[in-house]
Amino acid sequence: MFLPEEVDNKTFRLFVQRAWFLQNNRIALSPVEQELVDLILDHPEIQNAFTRKMLDISRTYKLDEENPFAMLAALWEINKQVNADKPKGVRSIFLNGFPENMVRRERQRRLARAFLRLCRSGEKTISDAKYVHDLEREVHTDFSSSAAEREITGERGAYNIYINNLIHESFSSVSSSFYKEADNQALSAGVKLAAAFNRLPSEWIEGISAGWRRPEKTTRKERIQDLCEFLLSPQGFLQISGALSAEERQVVKMVLDNGGKLMYGKLEKAFGGETGDDYYWSQHPPKSVIGRLRYRGLLVIGKTSGPSRHYKVAVIPKELHSVLKNL
Fold first, then answer.
1. DSSP category for residue 300
2. Residue 209's CB: how many other CB atoms inside 10 A?
3. Which of 24, 98, 185, 316 could form a disulfide with 199 if both were Cys (CB 3.0 to 4.6 A apart)?
């Protein structure tokens, strides 16, 4: 599944401008243009934003201001995914992931909002299974944090069986598969800190930032830059020194004594594995010894090539060697 960095771009705006102009001047539209116009007419909040016959496609929108072009692009994409059920599972979210009496328009809008948040998370390519799961999770988060659905359903927490089953029964096994997927990234002994962070899921970058109580950043790139600067700073060293437990320090020493790279199996044998650690670090920080070091951004796990097969390894990023050896 490919997530575009910008669903709203000049090409799309030109297409919207043309379709809306034709609609307002009663000129025949192509099937694709008609599909787009139908979405506009079905969503009053977008139609109300397009008050002029010739749209201003150069307008910019503030971060706290809803961009009708971006929302329309997301609605169009979600509509295609639901109709084709690609990736498989999106249609099931649309049909079963909302209160039964929620209207189609509101379901589309909530899925579109969730899609936009995923696009802005910084990840470009993810598996279809992860995309569907994360889309469902974003919808669930939207429900949990919003009072709007109580106006629609007339009751609090009117979630159906589908959501409850996914969140409470399937969450653990799906989360585990995403954890393994993240651990399959190629990793070398001399990897630099920024490169190591770029291999991590956005969820983990957000978790690491939250763990160190770093200030909010708009983009994934800014969060990574802030983390690198913090961990390599005198302030970062003091916080690391005060945060690490005796066991965590032993892990660091063991890896550094082996040049900054160690077979994962040796660490697991000495300090235990990560069974029980959740994929969603921002909500449930890891509890294992190895997991806690990963959550602090001091240790990364991945695969490296051997003579005949790939090996799972633990690596301390290069710039951190001089920082951590002084602990």
1. E
2. 21
3. 185
Domain that holds residue 221: 183-324
pLDDT average, residue stretch 279-289: 87
User: What is the rounded CA–CA span in Å between residue 313 and residue 265?
Assistant: 8
Q: Distance (Å, rounded) from C-alpha 271 to C-alpha 250?
A: 9
Claim to verify: residue 81 and residue 119 sit in the same structural domain: yes
Per-residue model confidence as pLDDT tens digits over 170-219: 445 556 777 888 888 888 888 999 999 998 988 899 899 999 999 988 78
Q: Decide: residue 76, CB within 10 A, 0-12 exposed, 13-18 middle, 19+ buried.
A: buried
Q: What is the percent of the chain where pLDDT is above 90?
A: 44
Q: Tell me how far apart the alpha carbons of residues 78 and 166 are, in angstroms, rounded to a whole number.
A: 20
**Could you give the number of structural domains in the chain?**
2
Same domain, 235 and 314: yes
CA distance 98 to 113: 14
**How many angstroms separate the Cα of 176 from the Cα of each of 183, 274, 275, 313?**
11, 10, 9, 18
pLDDT of residue 41: 93
Tell me, what DSSP letter sits at residue 2?
B
**pLDDT, tens digit (0-9, with 9 covering 90-100), for 213-244:** 999 887 888 999 999 999 999 999 999 999 99
**One domain for residues 187 and 85:** no
Instruction: Average the pLDDT over each of 2-16, 108-122, 288-302 and give the range with the smallest value.
Output: 2-16
Q: Looking at 179, 209, 239, which one is the last position of a domain?
A: 179
State whether residue 303 is helix, strand or coil: strand
Contacts of 284 (CB under 8 A, 6+ apart): 278
Give, as one character, the DSSP assignment of residue 325: T
pLDDT of residue 194: 95
- CA-to-CA dists, residue 69 to 11, 32, 47, 61, 138, angstroms: 11, 16, 11, 10, 21
Is the peptide bond prior to 87 cis by the omega test (within 30 degrees of 0)?
Answer: yes
Q: How many contiguous H segments (helices) and E segments (strands) does the chain have? A: 18, 3
Q: Say if 126 falls within a structural domain.
A: yes
Helix (H, G, I), strand (E, B) or coil at 124: coil
Same-domain status, 238 and 310? yes
